[in-house]
Structure formats: structure tokens, C-alpha cells
Amino acid sequence: MSCLNLFKPGVFFRSGISSNYINSILSVIYGVSELEFLILQDQLCEKMEKCKTGSHILPSQPAPCFKGTAVVNGEFKEISLKDYKGKYVVLFFYPLDFTFVCPTEIIAFSDRVEEFQKIGCEVVACSTDSHFSHLAWINTPRKQGGLGEMNIPLLADKNCEIARQYGCLKEEDGIAFRGLYIIDGKGILRQITINDLPVGRSVDETLRLVQAFQYTDKHGEVCPAGWKPGSSTMKPDPKQSQEYFRSAN
């Protein structure tokens, strides 16, 4: 039974008491009319449902199809996950424009985006700020804490729906944790990390992970800890994997 229907007319508790009767009693206790109580109850339940949305997403599942207004090459443009069909996508969330750790991450990804694009991967940054705020931040010089010229889209998620769908929204503050998602060319989530607010992420590690997943896609082998392009992989088989273990140990 969904939260929203828990106290609706006609629903009965195990004790056999009608939910209408329970609502009447509770409305008296809380000093509001029964209608006001039902409205407050529905609002609370809706918030609870929203909190659950996206919290269960896992690797190997389809990525939520984000779409919204982004700043691309200094202009406003509608973008969607569907625009990147057939390509890998790194979608990373950050808390707020005009802050401290955030510009270091965004600039690092933007300055090295060609390394991702060379292997068929695009990078998109997203926060719950507006696209107007994004543009103002881009137009602020880097020496003043701004972003300067950007080579990646900055996606606006003003209503928090994208961050909520991806399970990285800090509901009480309306901002995103530092979530990072690697999505393959078929729209499937391959990797998820979510940092708490104080610590930024590594471009090197993100690039390595994209390369590793692409290698496994192509060759059907698996990548051991710390794998980098050119190093050994192994076959996911009890006998065939022995070749790797003999050479590595």
C-alpha cells in the first residue's frame, strides 16, 4: 500500500477502525480541520515518496533520462541524455555555483574533456542552480573564482528533479552531493560514486574507469584493481584466469 493511500477513505487498519475515524481523531489532537490534516498528510507523504525516488539506482540498470537547459559554448541550449546515444557519458553533480571545491572540479574536467572525447565519451556537469547562474559563473574570470571559458555543458536542475532521480539530492538543502555517473552508449549505468560535500573527485580516475569499461565491452575480459590501458586483464573463468594470477604474483 502506497504512502499516499494509507489514510484514504475506505482504507481500514488491522484493528478494523476506519481511516476516516482515525483522521477525525488526529485532526482534533493537532488542532486543525480534517481537510487541513489530510492536506498536510499528503504533502508529507509526497515528500517521503520524492526522497525515495532514485535512491535505488544501481550499476547495470538504465540511467534516468535527464533533460534540461544547459549553458553550452556560452549559450542556452536544451540537452538530454538521448543526445548522447551511442557514446559514453560522464554526468557529474556538484553542490553550488560560486563556491570553492566546485570550480576546481569543473575546470579540471573541462580542460581535459578532449581526452574523454577521443575515446567516444562526453562530460556533463550539473547542479541545482539556474542556467542564468551558470552563465554568470562562466563569465567570471578564473582568478576571481569563476569558471571562464567552458568546454563542457553546465546543466541546470533548478527543480532538483535530475539530482533526485539520480539519488544524490540533499533534500533538506536543495543541493546535490558530489555524485558522478558513468553511462555507456546504450544508456546503462556502469559506475556510481557519491562524495560528501567537502571532497572533490579525480579526473584521472574517472578517465581510467571509462577506459576500463570500454575495454571490457570490447574484449569480454575483466580488469583487475588499478588497471590502466596496456596492462594485463583476465578472463572471467576459474581456469583461464590462472594465467593472469601466475604472471601477477
Describe this structure as you would to a colleague.
- The chain has a seven-stranded mixed beta sheet.
- The protein is α+β, with helices and mostly antiparallel strands and 249 residues long.
- Helix 1 (19-29) packs across helix 2 (34-52).
- It folds into two domains: 3-52; 67-219, Glutaredoxin (3-Layer(aba) Sandwich).
- Strand 6 and strand 7 form a beta hairpin.
- The longest helix is centred in the first third of the chain and has 19 residues, at 34-52.
- The protein has helices at 19-29, 34-52, 101-111, 113-117, 131-138, 161-165, 203-219, 242-248; strands at residues 67-72, 75-80, 88-93, 121-127, 154-156, 169-170, 175-176, 178-183, 189-195.
- It catalyses: a hydroperoxide + [thioredoxin]-dithiol = an alcohol + [thioredoxin]-disulfide + H2O.
- One of its GO terms (molecular function) is thioredoxin peroxidase activity.
- One of its GO terms (cellular component) is cytosol.
- Residues 57-215 form the Thioredoxin domain.
Question: Key terms for this structure?
Answer:
Glutaredoxin, 8 helices, 2 domains, seven-stranded mixed beta sheet, alpha+beta, 33% helix, disordered N terminus, two-stranded antiparallel ribbon, 249 residues
